[in-house]
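Q: Structure tokens for this one, please.
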Amino acid sequence: MSPLNPYFLQGSSSEQRLVQDLINEQLRMYGQDIVYLPRNIINKNTILKEITSSKFDDSFRIEAYLVNYEGFGGQGDILSKFGVKTTDEVTFIISKERYEDFISPFISLNTQIELKSRPEEGDLIYLPLDNTIFEIKYVEGKKPFYQLNNLYVYELRCEVMDYEADDVINTSINEVDESVKDFGYIVKLIMVGLGATSTSANVQLASSLAIAGGNSVSRIDLINDGTGYLSVPIVAISTASSGGINATAVAIMTSRSGQTGSSIDKILVVNPGIGYTVVPTVSIISSSGSGGIATAIISSGSLGPINLIGGGVGYSTAPIVSISTAPVGGTNATAQAFINSSGIVTSIRYTNAGAGYTQAPVITISSPVGVSTGNYIFNEIVRGVSTGTTAYVNDWDYDTRILQVKTSSGSFIRGESVVGMGTTSGGSNANYKILSINTQDEYDDYADNIPIENEADEILDFSERNPFGDY
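A: Here is the predicted structure, written as tokens:
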């Protein structure tokens, strides 16, 4: 026989039902409208059991009582060695019955959610009142403690979400998704736009540029590429005969694994010159590296320096330069274009200035290659066609052709096409090519790594000497 008083019910189902209904009613009257976001685990460390990436694409509106009626707890905004950090804390109370009836059944079949029967630490809560997303740090399920032998609410102790680079919030609720738009690591891709224009060039025969006859330097053969060059060496070519034009050339450098400094990859002719009666001497001059040896090849009927007519705009990669063929018995001229970081063609240099030309050839330069169509959609997945890198769209400006992305799976490369996920998958059919990439996080007010590094270089300039000693 139970020692309790048999004339009291000690928590009958009808009494418990009444208490639960009263709690639900009070939460609807005095609570706040929140959006509950369960965590979908994408990747988890198998050893440490640490969640390395997660996604929040389910959302459930529910009422919650805000315990912090006098304001947020925590230390507020503090300045740490990692920047300014918000430590606001808040406690919500939600109905146990409401969670079990309106959230648990809808996530029960989701294998990426580990705990479905109750709220779980790591889940998120969006509070429209403050336009802030909070992360659940602890779930208290036994407070009040078994009133009438039952539990009725969950107490959720939360902190402002510390946005991780691999977290994806894509609920299709604009106010929720855009609340974290400016958080996380953002990469800016400048795409080739509709304003891209082609460049053009012309050229004259070298013989028409000087009184003196003789030959021109059609190409320079690299005999030994040298090693240890810390800067681009000077390529010096001995002078042409009186009345001629001196040839000029530049070295193109390359680095090899296990090598200190750089080596010479090739030498390109800038001006073939005219007036050479003997093969000129090629000297490679440098204060650092050594071993570079090259020899000049001279020919008659070579071309003069190439003149650019407008630099063009929107080149994501160097364009192809085509030069019309030399007469029978001659050697066709070939050249290589160079562009700057703004996508403008800055120069064209010869790999071979040709031989046997009797009239100025036609130079054709390929147009900026890049499909420019469509508009990317916020939070859709985009993919780099060449690298396979994927990322989420954070912002797209059609006028400036600037695409901001975050949560990248890898690194995009300049010149590759970036396509949307397709309209059949709820995305866009946008397709643009990358003109340039800016990985500096310009959207974090406290991420001033580059300015700090530049200032530091002004203070300690190791290129001049070691300020800490001679060794």
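A few notes: Helices lie at 13-30, 96-102, 104-107, 174-177, 449-459. The mean pLDDT is 86.
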